[in-house]
């Protein structure tokens, strides 16, 4: 289903429909589809709508800059939601992580250093599993100075819903849980973890919108705007999917 909510896919489907209508001698309908496809391409490639949707997601939870309100005597775990990695053994562990995963992990390490008694919970294989792609999270954390005894492995859940289920199964609901994921993904992640019985503290990172002024070139159409639109649509529809309960067996 996610294939059909990709903005560029929608553009090509509308354009294809226009070509088919035109070939079927329905020229007016074909031209309307062609014009609408161009309008849609402009909408997703200029920053106005993509930035509006991104902002609606990224501003729901502020970054976790102050940790003094978190009781250091509690059992604190910082869970990093996975966002992709590769098992290319010719690359160092940090380079095997996707940019999203690396950004999430670096934020978790920052928090772990502020909360000395906390543990990192990372995607990773348990003893006996031969899943090298998962080891890059732990290896990167260790390379960046995290003590191995401060790391706990979650396993290899396939999506956020499975991460919530697996975390709850392994660690229960009594720990102070700090949830680290992309700012755009955080609303859906918080909803899913709350449904699993957790009361997570959000620690969003990897913000796509930053308040640094906008250059003239940034008002022009770009592939980055299309990416923002795709990510925002994925999260908005995914959150609605989760809330309706339709996504209980799978996820967008």
Could you characterize what this model shows?
The structure is a single chain. A five-stranded parallel sheet has the order 3-2-1-4-5, sandwiched between helices. Strand 4 (176-182), helix 8 (186-195) and strand 5 form a beta-alpha-beta unit. Helix 3 (48-58) crosses helix 9 (223-244) and helix 8 (186-195) packs parallel to helix 9. Helix content is 49%, strand content 10%. The model is unreliable at 126-132 (pLDDT under 50). The N and C termini lie close together (7 Å). The radius of gyration is 21 Å and the shape is elongated. By secondary structure, it is an alpha/beta fold. The protein is built from nine helices and five strands. The chain has two domains: 2-58 and 219-249, no CATH class; 76-205, Rossmann fold, CATH 3.40.50.620.
> What proportion of the residues form beta strands (DSSP E)?
5-15%
Biggest β-sheet: count, sense, barrel? 5 strands, parallel
Oligomer: single chain
Write down how many β-strands occur, each being a DSSP E stretch of 2 or more residues.
5
Q: Return the structural class.
A: alpha/beta
Helical segment count: 9
Q: Helicity level, as a percent range?
A: 40-55%
Report low-confidence residues grouped into runs of 5 or more: 126-132
Q: What is the rounded distance between the termini?
A: 7 Å
Q: Cα-atom Rg, whole angstroms? A: 21 Å
Order of helices and strands: HHHEHHEHEHEHEH
Q: What value does the average pLDDT take?
A: 87
- How many domain regions? 2
Major β-sheet strand ordering: 3-2-1-4-5
- CATH class category of the largest domain: Alpha Beta
What characteristic shape results from the CA principal axes? elongated
CATH homologous superfamily classification of the largest domain: HUPs
CATH topology of the largest domain: Rossmann fold
């Amino acid at each position: 289903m996610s294939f059909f909510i990709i903005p560029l896919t929608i553009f090509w489907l509308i354009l294809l429909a226009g070509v088919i209508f035109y070939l079927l001698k329905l020229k007016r309908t074909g031209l309307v589809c062609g014009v609408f496809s161009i309008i849609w391409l402009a909408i997703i490639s200029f920053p106005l709508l993509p930035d509006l949707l991104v902002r609606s997601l990224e501003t729901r939870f502020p970054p976790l800059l102050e940790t003094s309100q978190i009781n250091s005597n509690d059992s604190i775990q910082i869970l990093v939601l996975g966002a992709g990695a590769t098992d290319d053994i010719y690359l160092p562990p940090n380079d095997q992580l996707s940019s999203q995963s690396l950004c999430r992990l670096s934020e978790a390490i920052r928090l772990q250093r502020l909360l000395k008694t906390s543990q990192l919970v990372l995607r990773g294989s348990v003893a006996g599993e031969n899943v090298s792609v998962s080891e890059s999270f732990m290896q990167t954390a260790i390379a960046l100075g995290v003590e191995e005894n401060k790391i706990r492995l979650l396993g290899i859940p396939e999506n956020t819903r499975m991460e919530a289920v697996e975390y709850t199964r392994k660690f229960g609901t009594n720990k102070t849980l700090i949830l680290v994921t992309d700012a755009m993904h955080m609303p859906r992640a918080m909803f899913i973890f709350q449904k699993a019985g957790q009361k997570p503290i959000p620690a969003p990172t990897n913000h796509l919108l930053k308040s640094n002024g906008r250059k003239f070139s940034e008002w022009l159409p770009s592939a980055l705007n299309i990416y923002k639109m795709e990510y925002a649509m994925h999260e908005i529809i995914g959150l609605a999917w989760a809330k309706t309960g339709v996504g209980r067996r799978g996820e967008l």
